[in-house]
Specification:
single chain, 8-stranded mixed β-sheet, rod-shaped, disordered C terminus
Amino acid sequence: MEKQLEERSSSEMIRKYSRLFWQWSWLVILLTALAGGIVYFLSRRQTPVYRASTMVMINISTSSQNPFTSANLATTYGTSYSEIMTSRMVLDAVAKQLGMSRLVADSIQVKPIPNSTLLTVTASDTDPVRAASIANAVVSIFNEQNRADQTASYADSKLNLKNEMDAINKQIQNTSTNLAVLEQQIQEDNNLLNSLQTPDGIIRTQEEINQRANLIQQTQIALQPKVSQKAQLEIVLQNHQNSYSTLEQSYESIRLAESQVTSGVLVKDPAVPPHAPSKPKPVRNALLSGVLVLLFCVGVIFMIDYLDDTLKTPEDISRFLNLPVVGMIGEMERSQNGSGKVYVGENPRSPIAEAYRVLRSNLEFSSVDQPLQTLLVTSVGPEEGKTTVAVNLAVIIAQGGKRVMLVDSDLRRPTVHRQLNIQNRTGLSDLFLANPGDVSKVCAWGETKIWVVPSGPIPPNPTDLLGSVKFTEILNKLRKNVDILVVDSAPSIVSDPIILSNKVDGVLLVIKPGSTKIGAAQVVLEQFQRSGARVVGVVLNPITRRRARYSSKYEYYSKYYQSSSKNASYYSYEGKKNMK
Protein backbone atom coordinates (compact mmCIF):
# COMPACT_ATOMS: atom_id res chain seq x y z
CA MET A 1 0.00 0.00 0.00
CA GLU A 2 2.78 2.44 0.92
CA LYS A 3 4.56 1.65 -2.33
CA GLN A 4 1.38 2.36 -4.29
CA LEU A 5 0.94 5.65 -2.44
CA GLU A 6 4.53 6.64 -3.21
CA GLU A 7 4.08 5.77 -6.88
CA ARG A 8 0.84 7.75 -6.98
CA SER A 9 2.48 10.72 -5.28
CA SER A 10 5.37 10.59 -7.75
CA SER A 11 3.06 10.39 -10.74
CA GLU A 12 0.96 13.26 -9.41
CA MET A 13 4.08 15.37 -8.95
CA ILE A 14 5.22 14.56 -12.47
CA ARG A 15 1.82 15.50 -13.85
CA LYS A 16 1.81 18.67 -11.76
CA TYR A 17 5.12 19.93 -13.09
CA SER A 18 4.30 18.77 -16.60
CA ARG A 19 1.15 20.85 -16.49
CA LEU A 20 3.10 23.73 -14.97
CA PHE A 21 5.68 23.66 -17.76
CA TRP A 22 2.96 23.32 -20.35
CA GLN A 23 1.23 26.38 -18.93
CA TRP A 24 4.38 28.49 -19.27
CA SER A 25 5.73 26.76 -22.37
CA TRP A 26 4.74 29.63 -24.66
CA LEU A 27 6.69 32.13 -22.58
CA VAL A 28 9.69 29.82 -22.21
CA ILE A 29 9.79 29.19 -25.97
CA LEU A 30 9.38 32.89 -26.71
CA LEU A 31 12.14 33.99 -24.31
CA THR A 32 14.46 31.20 -25.46
CA ALA A 33 13.96 32.05 -29.12
CA LEU A 34 14.28 35.78 -28.42
CA ALA A 35 17.51 35.35 -26.45
CA GLY A 36 18.96 33.03 -29.08
CA GLY A 37 18.04 35.44 -31.87
CA ILE A 38 19.51 38.46 -30.11
CA VAL A 39 22.75 36.65 -29.28
CA TYR A 40 22.99 35.32 -32.84
CA PHE A 41 22.48 38.81 -34.27
CA LEU A 42 25.03 40.37 -31.91
CA SER A 43 27.53 37.59 -32.59
CA ARG A 44 27.23 38.12 -36.32
CA ARG A 45 28.08 41.79 -35.85
CA GLN A 46 31.26 41.10 -33.91
CA THR A 47 34.68 41.24 -35.57
CA PRO A 48 35.89 37.69 -36.31
CA VAL A 49 38.98 36.53 -34.45
CA TYR A 50 41.27 33.83 -35.84
CA ARG A 51 43.46 31.50 -33.79
CA ALA A 52 46.64 29.88 -35.08
CA SER A 53 48.68 27.39 -33.05
CA THR A 54 52.18 25.95 -33.30
CA MET A 55 53.38 22.91 -31.39
CA VAL A 56 56.95 22.86 -30.05
CA MET A 57 59.02 20.45 -28.00
CA ILE A 58 61.26 21.55 -25.16
CA ASN A 59 64.92 20.78 -25.95
CA ILE A 60 67.56 21.08 -23.23
CA SER A 61 71.18 20.17 -24.02
CA THR A 62 72.58 18.20 -21.08
CA SER A 63 75.63 16.14 -21.88
CA SER A 64 75.89 14.72 -18.40
CA GLN A 65 72.28 13.56 -18.13
CA ASN A 66 70.46 10.70 -19.75
CA PRO A 67 67.37 11.27 -22.00
CA PHE A 68 64.92 10.34 -19.24
CA THR A 69 66.38 12.97 -16.91
CA SER A 70 66.33 15.51 -19.74
CA ALA A 71 62.64 14.82 -20.40
CA ASN A 72 61.78 15.32 -16.74
CA LEU A 73 63.75 18.54 -16.67
CA ALA A 74 62.02 19.72 -19.85
CA THR A 75 58.63 19.05 -18.28
CA THR A 76 59.68 21.12 -15.28
CA TYR A 77 60.75 23.93 -17.57
CA GLY A 78 57.40 23.92 -19.37
CA THR A 79 55.75 26.36 -16.98
CA SER A 80 58.78 28.67 -17.03
CA TYR A 81 58.91 28.72 -20.81
CA SER A 82 55.18 29.47 -20.93
CA GLU A 83 55.67 32.54 -18.79
CA ILE A 84 58.73 33.72 -20.68
CA MET A 85 57.02 33.41 -24.08
CA THR A 86 54.23 35.71 -22.91
CA SER A 87 56.59 38.22 -21.30
CA ARG A 88 56.67 41.80 -22.48
CA MET A 89 60.26 41.45 -23.75
CA VAL A 90 59.30 38.66 -26.17
CA LEU A 91 56.04 40.30 -27.24
CA ASP A 92 57.72 43.63 -27.96
CA ALA A 93 60.34 41.89 -30.08
CA VAL A 94 57.62 40.03 -32.00
CA ALA A 95 55.66 43.25 -32.58
CA LYS A 96 58.83 44.99 -33.81
CA GLN A 97 59.65 42.10 -36.16
CA LEU A 98 56.13 42.05 -37.65
CA GLY A 99 55.81 45.82 -37.87
CA MET A 100 53.06 46.05 -35.26
CA SER A 101 52.69 48.91 -32.80
CA ARG A 102 51.97 46.69 -29.80
CA LEU A 103 51.06 43.10 -29.07
CA VAL A 104 48.57 42.45 -26.27
CA ALA A 105 49.55 39.68 -23.86
CA ASP A 106 46.01 38.28 -23.87
CA SER A 107 46.34 37.49 -27.56
CA ILE A 108 49.07 34.89 -26.86
CA GLN A 109 48.44 31.66 -24.98
CA VAL A 110 51.12 29.08 -24.17
CA LYS A 111 49.94 25.84 -22.60
CA PRO A 112 51.99 22.75 -21.75
CA ILE A 113 50.54 19.47 -22.95
CA PRO A 114 50.17 17.22 -19.87
CA ASN A 115 52.52 14.24 -19.51
CA SER A 116 54.75 15.39 -22.37
CA THR A 117 57.52 17.82 -23.24
CA LEU A 118 55.30 19.62 -25.75
CA LEU A 119 53.92 23.14 -25.70
CA THR A 120 51.20 24.75 -27.80
CA VAL A 121 51.65 28.40 -28.68
CA THR A 122 48.36 29.99 -29.80
CA ALA A 123 47.99 33.50 -31.22
CA SER A 124 44.69 35.33 -31.77
CA ASP A 125 44.21 38.10 -34.31
CA THR A 126 41.62 39.53 -36.66
CA ASP A 127 43.83 38.55 -39.62
CA PRO A 128 44.37 34.78 -40.10
CA VAL A 129 47.77 35.21 -41.80
CA ARG A 130 48.98 37.56 -39.10
CA ALA A 131 47.78 35.17 -36.40
CA ALA A 132 49.96 32.39 -37.86
CA SER A 133 52.90 34.80 -38.22
CA ILE A 134 52.59 35.88 -34.59
CA ALA A 135 52.54 32.29 -33.31
CA ASN A 136 55.64 31.34 -35.33
CA ALA A 137 57.42 34.60 -34.46
CA VAL A 138 56.92 34.05 -30.75
CA VAL A 139 58.77 30.74 -30.99
CA SER A 140 61.60 32.13 -33.14
CA ILE A 141 62.08 35.23 -30.98
CA PHE A 142 62.08 33.08 -27.84
CA ASN A 143 64.77 30.80 -29.32
CA GLU A 144 66.89 33.78 -30.37
CA GLN A 145 66.68 35.40 -26.96
CA ASN A 146 67.31 32.08 -25.23
CA ARG A 147 70.38 31.45 -27.41
CA ALA A 148 71.61 35.00 -26.81
CA ASP A 149 71.21 34.60 -23.06
CA GLN A 150 73.17 31.35 -23.05
CA THR A 151 75.90 32.81 -25.31
CA ALA A 152 76.16 35.84 -23.04
CA SER A 153 76.64 33.62 -20.01
CA TYR A 154 79.47 31.70 -21.78
CA ALA A 155 81.09 34.94 -22.94
CA ASP A 156 81.44 36.18 -19.39
CA SER A 157 83.07 32.92 -18.33
CA LYS A 158 85.44 32.96 -21.28
CA LEU A 159 86.43 36.55 -20.61
CA ASN A 160 87.21 35.81 -16.98
CA LEU A 161 89.26 32.75 -17.90
CA LYS A 162 91.08 34.68 -20.62
CA ASN A 163 92.06 37.42 -18.20
CA GLU A 164 93.36 34.88 -15.71
CA MET A 165 95.28 33.03 -18.42
CA ASP A 166 96.89 36.27 -19.63
CA ALA A 167 97.92 37.18 -16.10
CA ILE A 168 99.46 33.75 -15.46
CA ASN A 169 101.12 33.77 -18.88
CA LYS A 170 102.73 37.10 -18.03
CA GLN A 171 103.96 35.64 -14.77
CA ILE A 172 105.35 32.64 -16.65
CA GLN A 173 107.21 34.92 -19.01
CA ASN A 174 108.64 36.99 -16.18
CA THR A 175 109.68 33.90 -14.26
CA SER A 176 111.19 32.36 -17.38
CA THR A 177 113.16 35.56 -18.04
CA ASN A 178 114.46 35.70 -14.48
CA LEU A 179 115.31 32.03 -14.61
CA ALA A 180 117.22 32.47 -17.88
CA VAL A 181 119.24 35.38 -16.42
CA LEU A 182 119.98 33.37 -13.31
CA GLU A 183 121.02 30.33 -15.36
CA GLN A 184 123.35 32.56 -17.37
CA GLN A 185 124.94 33.82 -14.18
CA ILE A 186 125.30 30.30 -12.81
CA GLN A 187 126.86 29.19 -16.08
CA GLU A 188 129.38 32.01 -15.97
CA ASP A 189 130.24 31.16 -12.35
CA ASN A 190 130.63 27.50 -13.25
CA ASN A 191 132.87 28.38 -16.18
CA LEU A 192 134.95 30.58 -13.88
CA LEU A 193 135.31 27.78 -11.35
CA ASN A 194 136.29 25.33 -14.04
CA SER A 195 138.93 27.69 -15.37
CA LEU A 196 140.33 28.29 -11.88
CA GLN A 197 140.32 24.66 -10.89
CA THR A 198 141.88 23.37 -14.10
CA PRO A 199 145.77 23.27 -13.97
CA ASP A 200 147.28 25.46 -16.66
CA GLY A 201 150.99 24.48 -16.16
CA ILE A 202 152.00 27.94 -15.06
CA ILE A 203 154.30 28.29 -12.02
CA ARG A 204 152.87 30.76 -9.59
CA THR A 205 154.06 32.21 -6.40
CA GLN A 206 152.56 31.31 -3.10
CA GLU A 207 150.75 34.61 -2.99
CA GLU A 208 149.20 34.03 -6.42
CA ILE A 209 148.20 30.56 -5.36
CA ASN A 210 146.50 31.93 -2.26
CA GLN A 211 144.66 34.61 -4.28
CA ARG A 212 143.43 32.00 -6.75
CA ALA A 213 142.19 29.81 -3.88
CA ASN A 214 140.32 32.74 -2.36
CA LEU A 215 138.70 33.52 -5.72
CA ILE A 216 137.52 29.92 -6.09
CA GLN A 217 136.12 30.01 -2.57
CA GLN A 218 134.29 33.30 -3.19
CA THR A 219 132.86 32.06 -6.50
CA GLN A 220 131.60 28.87 -4.88
CA ILE A 221 129.99 30.90 -2.07
CA ALA A 222 128.24 33.21 -4.58
CA LEU A 223 127.10 30.24 -6.68
CA GLN A 224 125.17 28.47 -3.92
CA PRO A 225 122.35 31.13 -3.48
CA LYS A 226 121.95 31.32 -7.21
CA VAL A 227 121.43 27.58 -7.44
CA SER A 228 118.84 27.74 -4.65
CA GLN A 229 117.09 30.68 -6.31
CA LYS A 230 117.05 28.75 -9.61
CA ALA A 231 115.37 25.80 -7.93
CA GLN A 232 112.72 28.11 -6.46
CA LEU A 233 112.12 29.79 -9.81
CA GLU A 234 111.72 26.43 -11.47
CA ILE A 235 109.12 25.45 -8.87
CA VAL A 236 107.23 28.75 -9.36
CA LEU A 237 107.42 28.35 -13.11
CA GLN A 238 106.04 24.82 -12.87
CA ASN A 239 103.13 26.03 -10.71
CA HIS A 240 102.33 28.78 -13.17
CA GLN A 241 102.42 26.36 -16.04
CA ASN A 242 100.08 23.95 -14.21
CA SER A 243 97.62 26.76 -13.45
CA TYR A 244 97.75 27.92 -17.02
CA SER A 245 97.10 24.39 -18.23
CA THR A 246 94.08 24.08 -15.90
CA LEU A 247 92.64 27.39 -17.08
CA GLU A 248 93.25 26.42 -20.68
CA GLN A 249 91.30 23.20 -20.18
CA SER A 250 88.40 25.12 -18.60
CA TYR A 251 88.46 27.58 -21.45
CA GLU A 252 88.33 24.80 -24.01
CA SER A 253 85.45 23.16 -22.12
CA ILE A 254 83.45 26.39 -22.22
CA ARG A 255 84.18 26.79 -25.90
CA LEU A 256 83.00 23.23 -26.48
CA ALA A 257 79.82 23.83 -24.46
CA GLU A 258 79.23 27.05 -26.38
CA SER A 259 79.55 25.24 -29.65
CA GLN A 260 76.89 22.75 -28.48
CA VAL A 261 74.31 25.38 -27.49
CA THR A 262 70.88 24.60 -29.05
CA SER A 263 67.53 26.43 -29.06
CA GLY A 264 65.17 26.14 -26.06
CA VAL A 265 62.31 24.62 -28.09
CA LEU A 266 62.06 22.73 -31.34
CA VAL A 267 59.21 23.44 -33.72
CA LYS A 268 57.27 20.26 -34.47
CA ASP A 269 54.15 21.70 -36.10
CA PRO A 270 54.36 25.29 -37.33
CA ALA A 271 51.27 27.49 -37.36
CA VAL A 272 49.34 27.95 -40.60
CA PRO A 273 46.62 30.52 -41.35
CA PRO A 274 43.23 29.18 -40.16
CA HIS A 275 40.32 28.95 -42.59
CA ALA A 276 37.53 29.79 -40.14
CA PRO A 277 37.40 32.21 -37.20
CA SER A 278 37.54 30.84 -33.68
CA LYS A 279 35.08 33.43 -32.46
CA PRO A 280 32.42 34.54 -32.56
CA LYS A 281 30.43 31.37 -33.20
CA PRO A 282 26.88 32.64 -33.68
CA VAL A 283 25.17 29.25 -33.71
CA ARG A 284 26.98 27.98 -30.64
CA ASN A 285 26.43 31.24 -28.76
CA ALA A 286 22.75 31.24 -29.68
CA LEU A 287 22.32 27.66 -28.48
CA LEU A 288 24.17 28.33 -25.23
CA SER A 289 22.15 31.46 -24.55
CA GLY A 290 18.97 29.55 -25.32
CA VAL A 291 19.94 26.82 -22.88
CA LEU A 292 20.81 29.37 -20.19
CA VAL A 293 17.53 31.23 -20.67
CA LEU A 294 15.70 27.90 -20.62
CA LEU A 295 17.32 26.94 -17.32
CA PHE A 296 16.62 30.41 -15.95
CA CYS A 297 12.97 30.16 -16.97
CA VAL A 298 12.69 26.72 -15.38
CA GLY A 299 14.14 28.13 -12.16
CA VAL A 300 11.77 31.09 -12.26
CA ILE A 301 8.82 28.75 -12.88
CA PHE A 302 9.81 26.64 -9.89
CA MET A 303 10.22 29.81 -7.81
CA ILE A 304 6.84 31.18 -8.89
CA ASP A 305 5.17 27.88 -8.12
CA TYR A 306 6.95 27.71 -4.76
CA LEU A 307 6.00 31.27 -3.80
CA ASP A 308 2.45 30.98 -5.13
CA ASP A 309 0.20 30.75 -2.06
CA THR A 310 -3.12 30.56 -3.92
CA LEU A 311 -5.54 27.68 -4.32
CA LYS A 312 -5.42 26.36 -7.86
CA THR A 313 -6.44 22.69 -8.05
CA PRO A 314 -8.91 20.32 -6.43
CA GLU A 315 -5.89 18.71 -4.79
CA ASP A 316 -5.12 22.05 -3.12
CA ILE A 317 -8.70 22.28 -1.83
CA SER A 318 -8.49 18.79 -0.38
CA ARG A 319 -5.05 19.34 1.08
CA PHE A 320 -5.44 22.78 2.67
CA LEU A 321 -9.21 23.00 3.35
CA ASN A 322 -10.19 19.33 3.62
CA LEU A 323 -13.36 20.09 1.66
CA PRO A 324 -14.85 18.35 -1.39
CA VAL A 325 -14.93 20.15 -4.72
CA VAL A 326 -18.56 19.90 -5.80
CA GLY A 327 -18.23 21.99 -8.94
CA MET A 328 -15.74 23.37 -11.43
CA ILE A 329 -17.12 26.14 -13.62
CA GLY A 330 -15.48 27.29 -16.80
CA GLU A 331 -14.96 30.84 -17.97
CA MET A 332 -18.07 32.56 -19.38
CA GLU A 333 -18.36 35.30 -21.93
CA ARG A 334 -18.47 38.69 -20.24
CA SER A 335 -21.07 39.98 -22.65
CA GLN A 336 -23.71 37.86 -20.93
CA ASN A 337 -23.43 39.75 -17.64
CA GLY A 338 -25.92 42.56 -17.15
CA SER A 339 -28.02 41.68 -20.19
CA GLY A 340 -30.79 39.95 -18.26
CA LYS A 341 -29.79 36.64 -19.79
CA VAL A 342 -28.37 33.82 -17.71
CA TYR A 343 -25.66 31.85 -19.43
CA VAL A 344 -26.99 28.37 -18.64
CA GLY A 345 -30.45 29.43 -19.81
CA GLU A 346 -29.18 30.73 -23.14
CA ASN A 347 -26.67 27.90 -23.64
CA PRO A 348 -28.24 24.77 -22.14
CA ARG A 349 -25.95 22.39 -24.03
CA SER A 350 -22.69 24.21 -23.33
CA PRO A 351 -19.90 22.79 -21.16
CA ILE A 352 -20.69 25.53 -18.62
CA ALA A 353 -24.29 24.36 -18.30
CA GLU A 354 -23.10 20.78 -17.95
CA ALA A 355 -20.75 21.87 -15.16
CA TYR A 356 -23.65 23.46 -13.29
CA ARG A 357 -25.68 20.26 -13.71
CA VAL A 358 -22.79 18.37 -12.13
CA LEU A 359 -22.81 20.92 -9.31
CA ARG A 360 -26.57 20.46 -8.87
CA SER A 361 -26.18 16.69 -8.74
CA ASN A 362 -23.37 16.89 -6.20
CA LEU A 363 -25.46 19.14 -3.98
CA GLU A 364 -28.37 16.70 -4.20
CA PHE A 365 -26.13 13.81 -3.19
CA SER A 366 -24.70 15.78 -0.30
CA SER A 367 -28.22 16.51 1.04
CA VAL A 368 -29.50 12.94 1.19
CA ASP A 369 -29.35 12.79 5.00
CA GLN A 370 -29.64 16.53 5.63
CA PRO A 371 -31.84 18.23 3.00
CA LEU A 372 -30.65 21.57 1.68
CA GLN A 373 -33.69 23.84 1.68
CA THR A 374 -31.61 27.00 2.20
CA LEU A 375 -28.19 27.31 0.55
CA LEU A 376 -25.83 30.22 1.21
CA VAL A 377 -23.44 31.07 -1.66
CA THR A 378 -20.41 33.12 -0.66
CA SER A 379 -16.75 33.55 -1.52
CA VAL A 380 -13.51 34.25 0.28
CA GLY A 381 -12.97 37.60 -1.40
CA PRO A 382 -14.64 39.96 -3.84
CA GLU A 383 -14.67 39.51 -7.61
CA GLU A 384 -14.59 35.71 -7.35
CA GLY A 385 -17.91 35.08 -9.15
CA LYS A 386 -20.17 34.11 -6.25
CA THR A 387 -23.19 35.98 -7.66
CA THR A 388 -22.68 34.42 -11.08
CA VAL A 389 -22.58 30.98 -9.48
CA ALA A 390 -25.69 31.71 -7.39
CA VAL A 391 -27.71 32.97 -10.38
CA ASN A 392 -26.73 30.18 -12.75
CA LEU A 393 -27.16 27.55 -10.03
CA ALA A 394 -30.68 28.81 -9.32
CA VAL A 395 -31.57 28.58 -13.02
CA ILE A 396 -30.09 25.10 -13.43
CA ILE A 397 -31.96 23.85 -10.33
CA ALA A 398 -35.17 25.32 -11.74
CA GLN A 399 -34.52 23.53 -15.03
CA GLY A 400 -34.55 20.32 -12.99
CA GLY A 401 -38.19 20.97 -12.03
CA LYS A 402 -37.80 22.48 -8.59
CA ARG A 403 -39.18 25.74 -7.32
CA VAL A 404 -36.29 28.06 -6.56
CA MET A 405 -36.08 31.44 -4.88
CA LEU A 406 -32.95 33.54 -5.24
CA VAL A 407 -32.35 36.01 -2.38
CA ASP A 408 -29.76 38.76 -2.69
CA SER A 409 -28.55 39.21 0.89
CA ASP A 410 -25.51 41.24 -0.17
CA LEU A 411 -26.66 44.50 1.38
CA ARG A 412 -23.35 46.17 0.69
CA ARG A 413 -22.66 45.75 -3.03
CA PRO A 414 -25.64 43.88 -4.51
CA THR A 415 -25.33 42.64 -8.10
CA VAL A 416 -28.12 40.07 -8.59
CA HIS A 417 -30.50 42.68 -10.02
CA ARG A 418 -27.85 43.79 -12.51
CA GLN A 419 -27.22 40.30 -13.82
CA LEU A 420 -30.94 39.59 -14.10
CA ASN A 421 -31.74 43.11 -15.32
CA ILE A 422 -34.54 43.69 -12.80
CA GLN A 423 -35.49 46.66 -10.67
CA ASN A 424 -33.99 47.07 -7.18
CA ARG A 425 -36.19 49.79 -5.76
CA THR A 426 -37.73 47.32 -3.32
CA GLY A 427 -36.45 44.07 -1.97
CA LEU A 428 -34.98 42.33 1.06
CA SER A 429 -34.24 45.47 3.03
CA ASP A 430 -37.93 46.48 2.73
CA LEU A 431 -39.05 43.15 4.24
CA PHE A 432 -37.46 44.18 7.54
CA LEU A 433 -40.04 46.97 7.74
CA ALA A 434 -42.97 45.05 6.28
CA ASN A 435 -44.63 41.71 6.79
CA PRO A 436 -42.03 38.95 6.29
CA GLY A 437 -44.44 37.16 3.99
CA ASP A 438 -45.14 40.21 1.81
CA VAL A 439 -44.98 38.72 -1.67
CA SER A 440 -44.93 42.15 -3.27
CA LYS A 441 -41.22 42.27 -2.63
CA VAL A 442 -40.77 38.99 -4.50
CA CYS A 443 -40.70 39.00 -8.30
CA ALA A 444 -40.81 36.10 -10.72
CA TRP A 445 -38.06 35.90 -13.28
CA GLY A 446 -38.05 34.28 -16.70
CA GLU A 447 -40.20 31.43 -17.80
CA THR A 448 -38.84 28.95 -15.28
CA LYS A 449 -39.89 28.39 -11.67
CA ILE A 450 -37.61 31.07 -10.23
CA TRP A 451 -38.52 33.87 -7.87
CA VAL A 452 -36.08 36.60 -7.00
CA VAL A 453 -35.80 38.81 -3.93
CA PRO A 454 -33.38 41.63 -4.79
CA SER A 455 -31.49 43.42 -2.06
CA GLY A 456 -33.52 46.60 -2.20
CA PRO A 457 -32.17 49.89 -0.87
CA ILE A 458 -28.81 49.51 0.90
CA PRO A 459 -29.28 49.93 4.66
CA PRO A 460 -26.72 51.62 6.94
CA ASN A 461 -26.43 48.55 9.22
CA PRO A 462 -26.48 45.38 7.08
CA THR A 463 -24.73 43.21 9.66
CA ASP A 464 -27.27 44.03 12.37
CA LEU A 465 -30.20 43.35 10.03
CA LEU A 466 -28.85 39.99 8.82
CA GLY A 467 -28.15 38.86 12.36
CA SER A 468 -31.56 39.85 13.69
CA VAL A 469 -34.45 37.56 14.57
CA LYS A 470 -36.49 39.38 11.94
CA PHE A 471 -34.26 38.07 9.17
CA THR A 472 -34.65 34.53 10.51
CA GLU A 473 -38.43 34.96 10.26
CA ILE A 474 -38.03 36.31 6.71
CA LEU A 475 -36.05 33.23 5.67
CA ASN A 476 -38.55 30.88 7.28
CA LYS A 477 -41.45 32.57 5.49
CA LEU A 478 -39.73 32.62 2.11
CA ARG A 479 -38.62 28.99 2.05
CA LYS A 480 -42.11 27.72 2.81
CA ASN A 481 -43.16 28.63 -0.72
CA VAL A 482 -40.26 27.01 -2.62
CA ASP A 483 -38.26 23.80 -2.71
CA ILE A 484 -34.89 25.50 -2.24
CA LEU A 485 -33.80 28.97 -1.23
CA VAL A 486 -30.49 30.16 -2.76
CA VAL A 487 -29.03 33.06 -0.77
CA ASP A 488 -26.32 35.23 -2.35
CA SER A 489 -24.30 36.95 0.36
CA ALA A 490 -21.43 39.37 0.61
CA PRO A 491 -17.83 38.02 0.43
CA SER A 492 -16.42 36.54 3.60
CA ILE A 493 -14.08 39.47 4.14
CA VAL A 494 -17.01 40.92 6.10
CA SER A 495 -18.94 39.22 8.87
CA ASP A 496 -22.23 38.95 6.97
CA PRO A 497 -21.71 35.40 5.63
CA ILE A 498 -20.54 34.19 9.05
CA ILE A 499 -23.73 35.50 10.63
CA LEU A 500 -25.91 33.99 7.88
CA SER A 501 -24.15 30.62 7.97
CA ASN A 502 -25.98 29.38 11.07
CA LYS A 503 -29.35 30.43 9.63
CA VAL A 504 -29.11 28.22 6.51
CA ASP A 505 -28.84 24.49 5.89
CA GLY A 506 -25.55 24.67 4.02
CA VAL A 507 -22.81 26.97 2.75
CA LEU A 508 -21.35 26.79 -0.74
CA LEU A 509 -17.91 28.41 -0.86
CA VAL A 510 -16.81 29.87 -4.21
CA ILE A 511 -13.05 30.01 -4.79
CA LYS A 512 -11.27 31.61 -7.74
CA PRO A 513 -8.33 29.40 -8.82
CA GLY A 514 -5.03 31.21 -8.79
CA SER A 515 -6.49 34.21 -6.96
CA THR A 516 -7.86 33.04 -3.61
CA LYS A 517 -5.12 32.92 -0.97
CA ILE A 518 -4.69 29.74 1.01
CA GLY A 519 -4.42 31.58 4.32
CA ALA A 520 -7.54 33.66 3.65
CA ALA A 521 -9.56 30.57 2.73
CA GLN A 522 -8.40 28.75 5.86
CA VAL A 523 -9.38 31.70 8.05
CA VAL A 524 -12.85 31.87 6.46
CA LEU A 525 -13.34 28.12 6.86
CA GLU A 526 -12.29 28.32 10.50
CA GLN A 527 -14.82 31.08 11.11
CA PHE A 528 -17.58 28.99 9.52
CA GLN A 529 -16.61 26.02 11.67
CA ARG A 530 -16.67 28.13 14.83
CA SER A 531 -20.16 29.37 13.99
CA GLY A 532 -21.35 25.79 13.52
CA ALA A 533 -22.02 26.20 9.80
CA ARG A 534 -22.22 23.27 7.43
CA VAL A 535 -19.93 23.88 4.45
CA VAL A 536 -21.14 21.45 1.80
CA GLY A 537 -18.26 22.02 -0.59
CA VAL A 538 -16.24 24.29 -2.81
CA VAL A 539 -16.90 25.57 -6.32
CA LEU A 540 -13.88 26.51 -8.42
CA ASN A 541 -14.91 29.49 -10.55
CA PRO A 542 -13.90 30.51 -13.10
CA ILE A 543 -11.51 28.01 -14.65
CA THR A 544 -9.96 30.02 -17.46
CA ARG A 545 -8.52 28.55 -20.60
CA ARG A 546 -5.09 29.11 -19.15
CA ARG A 547 -6.03 26.83 -16.25
CA ALA A 548 -8.05 24.38 -18.35
CA ARG A 549 -5.67 21.61 -17.27
CA TYR A 550 -7.65 21.44 -14.00
CA SER A 551 -10.87 20.58 -15.83
CA SER A 552 -10.27 18.40 -18.85
CA LYS A 553 -13.97 17.64 -19.06
CA TYR A 554 -14.64 21.16 -20.31
CA GLU A 555 -12.28 20.57 -23.16
CA TYR A 556 -14.09 17.32 -23.88
CA TYR A 557 -17.51 18.95 -23.91
CA SER A 558 -16.25 21.85 -25.99
CA LYS A 559 -14.90 19.52 -28.66
CA TYR A 560 -18.05 17.42 -28.54
CA TYR A 561 -20.42 20.33 -29.02
CA GLN A 562 -18.14 22.14 -31.45
CA SER A 563 -18.67 19.27 -33.90
CA SER A 564 -22.39 20.11 -33.81
CA SER A 565 -21.97 23.86 -34.18
CA LYS A 566 -24.14 23.85 -37.29
CA ASN A 567 -27.10 22.80 -35.17
CA ALA A 568 -26.34 25.15 -32.27
CA SER A 569 -29.40 27.28 -32.89
CA TYR A 570 -31.58 24.17 -32.96
CA TYR A 571 -30.23 22.94 -29.65
CA SER A 572 -30.73 26.35 -28.09
CA TYR A 573 -34.33 26.44 -29.29
CA GLU A 574 -35.05 22.94 -28.03
CA GLY A 575 -33.50 23.75 -24.70
CA LYS A 576 -35.72 26.80 -24.23
CA LYS A 577 -38.74 24.78 -25.34
CA ASN A 578 -38.02 22.09 -22.77
CA MET A 579 -37.67 24.72 -20.03
CA LYS A 580 -41.12 25.99 -20.92
